[in-house]
Amino acid sequence: MGAHGFGSLVRNAHGLVTFQLTPFRQKAVSGFLTRGVANGAKEAADALPTMLPGLLAGALIFKWGKDQFAANQRKNPEDFANDS
């Protein structure tokens, strides 16, 4: 690597301009209640037609599974007819 080593090859690349904004100048929660909640509600309403069939199918399958499990846990009275 020569005399300088790998870490100090280029200090200022000519023609390369970088910009940074200090964290103290950024507004992290600026407009959250005015724009963020409204935008989230709009995005959710836009996504609802594509998500609704899957959510409905999942809910129906879950309900069927719970009902089937409850039915399978019941005792059959005919199994105990000959007990004394």
The gist of it:
Helices cover 50% and strands 0% of the residues.
- Average of the residue pLDDT scores: 83
Low-confidence parts, pLDDT < 50 over ≥5 residues? Answer: none
- Please provide the count of β strands: 0
Strand content: under 5%
Global shape:
elongated
Structural class: mainly alpha
Please give the radius of gyration in angstroms: 32 Å
For the record, give the distance between the C-alpha atoms at the N and C termini, rounded to a whole number.
Answer: 95 Å
N to C succession of SSEs: H
Sheet having the most strands: none
Our count of helices gives: 1
Helix content: 40-55%
Subcellular location: Mitochondrion inner membrane
Protein name: Cytochrome b-c1 complex subunit 8
InterPro entries: Cyt_bc1_su8, Cyt_bc1_su8_sf
Keywords: Electron transport, Membrane, Mitochondrion, Mitochondrion inner membrane, Respiratory chain, Transmembrane, Transmembrane helix, Transport
List the helices and strands and how they pair.
Elements: H1 32-73
What do these coordinates show?
The protein is an all-alpha fold. The protein has a domain at 31-72. Helices cover 50% and strands 0% of the residues. It is built from one helix and no strands. It has one helix at 32-73. The chain is elongated and about 100 Å long.
Q: Top keywords for this entry?
A:
transmembrane, electron transport, mainly alpha, respiratory chain, 1 helix, 84 residues, elongated, 0% strand, 50% helix, Cytochrome b-c1 complex subunit 8, single chain
